[in-house]
């Protein structure tokens, strides 16, 4: 009897062995943390954006993160992969956390204490939570708790977006079945013209060579108050997703920039 004959390996057992090295809870957590910023963006901009516009970007972002976690787990083991899934997941989420942190820092006493309060506060907050996650990742209960938190911050905004989509569909169907518009006998005394997403005159002229000056001047001649700083800084693009840092560049090429206070902004929008 030939004792040197090799026994063929079972492919099923090999796949189970590979799957056993993957931290499924950690991978779900990392994917959810990567998708959460996109889910929040979709819910906040539900009137302009749809799920079809954003799913590819969210899938690529989360897929790349899960692939990195899987590679780490296969090389260094499941425990190391679980820890890195939490750390990398938080980093993926924190990249989109900058604007919220900066807004908080701008409205607090840190604005007078720190010269670059936004970046400093963001780095300190991100690093602190990163160290906390690294320490707690060794606890047996923490991966499950982190997964519940990550899934929640994805499901809640997506649920709100879904509810809005269903509700807006019902409203549009009701409005489409309404009767003809009422024709007024006398012209009203007050008119409003709201141009949502209309780029500012100086920005359109400098960046795209689109001169809207005659249109704006005609509005002024007809008695309309044109609030230049109240207009959109640029057309709706995917920069709204990628611009996770300070968006002061949106005010270019004009030097007027963003009003320093909300009261001043409201005054400018009122035409003062």
TrEMBL record:
UniProt entry tagged with the keyword Transmembrane: yes
Keywords: Membrane, Transmembrane, Transmembrane helix
Membrane-crossing segments per the record: 21-42, 54-76, 83-99, 119-137, 144-164
Keyword Metal-binding listed: no
Protein name: Sulfatase N-terminal domain-containing protein
Organism: marine metagenome
């Amino acid at each position: 009897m030939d004792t040197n004959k090799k026994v063929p390996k079972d492919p099923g057992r090999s796949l189970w062995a590979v799957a056993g090295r993957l931290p499924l809870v950690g991978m779900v957590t990392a994917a959810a943390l990567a998708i959460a910023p996109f889910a929040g963006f979709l819910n906040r901009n539900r009137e302009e954006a749809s799920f079809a516009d954003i799913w590819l970007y969210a899938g690529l972002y989360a897929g790349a993160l899960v692939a990195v976690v899987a590679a780490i787990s296969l090389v260094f083991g499941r425990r190391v992969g679980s820890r890195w899934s939490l750390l990398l997941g938080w980093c993926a989420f924190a990249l989109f956390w900058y604007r919220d942190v900066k807004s908080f820092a701008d409205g607090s006493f840190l604005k007078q204490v720190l010269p670059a309060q936004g970046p400093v506060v963001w780095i300190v907050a991100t690093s602190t939570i990163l160290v906390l996650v690294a320490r707690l990742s060794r606890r047996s209960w923490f991966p499950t708790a982190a997964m519940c938190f990550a899934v929640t911050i994805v499901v809640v905004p997506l649920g709100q977006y879904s509810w809005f989509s269903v509700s807006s569909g019902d409203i549009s169907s009701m409005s489409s079945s309404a009767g003809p518009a009422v024709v007024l006998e006398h012209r009203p005394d007050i008119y409003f013209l709201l141009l949502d997403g209309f780029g500012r005159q100086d920005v359109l002229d400098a960046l795209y060579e689109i001169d809207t000056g005659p249109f704006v001047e005609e509005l002024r001649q007809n008695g309309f108050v044109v609030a230049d700083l109240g207009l959109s800084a640029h057309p709706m693009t995917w920069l709204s997703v990628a611009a996770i840092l300070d968006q002061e560049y949106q005010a270019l090429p004009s030097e007027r920039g963003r009003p320093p206070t909300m009261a001043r902004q409201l005054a400018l929008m009122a035409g003062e």
